[in-house]
Amino acid sequence: MTETRDVGSLVERGLRHFRDGMYPEALEAYSEARKAFLAGGDLLNAAEMLNNIGVIHRIERRKAAALAALQEAHDSFKELGDLSRAAQALGNIGSVYAGVRERETAIHHYGRAAEIFAELGDGNRQGEVLMALGSVQMKQRRWHQAVAAYHAGLCALETRSLFQRLLLWLLSIARERISL
Length: 180
Known about the structure:
There is one protein chain. The chain is mostly helical. It has a single domain (42-177), classed as Serine Threonine Protein Phosphatase 5, Tetratricopeptide repeat, CATH 1.25.40.10. It is 84% helix and 0% strand. The protein has nine helices and no strands. The mean pLDDT is 93.
């Protein structure tokens, strides 16, 4: 019981530091939590910590470290049968590539993540990934694909904010005008 509470406090500390923008401290807490999860045989939570570590590396623009952590997390999630988290890791990998302007590779990973979320019936995550994909395509000046991806992303969301509903309406008009 004490070990579970200790690892839980490490995860909470990592999250608190992450939210406060204290990334080195968050990285340390998540790394310690990962070791504890591995020692306890909890491979799923160990992979989750690795995903968190990869996100921190992405934010701090350490491409190689981010990709290594996120790919290992993806592989672990997939091996453990957690396709939702595997897709989330793919989306995070896409974000790494988008951040370093390797846009085609980002699009590939976002697209695969969106497909998996669609297969799982997770409209919100599918929508988020499709909108990220649309943003990358917008930066490539691939207007038709960008509008289509962003529109599909908004449509996939299970609930939309007022701004998202307005944007969906505007994109619907844009799609009609550019005859997608």
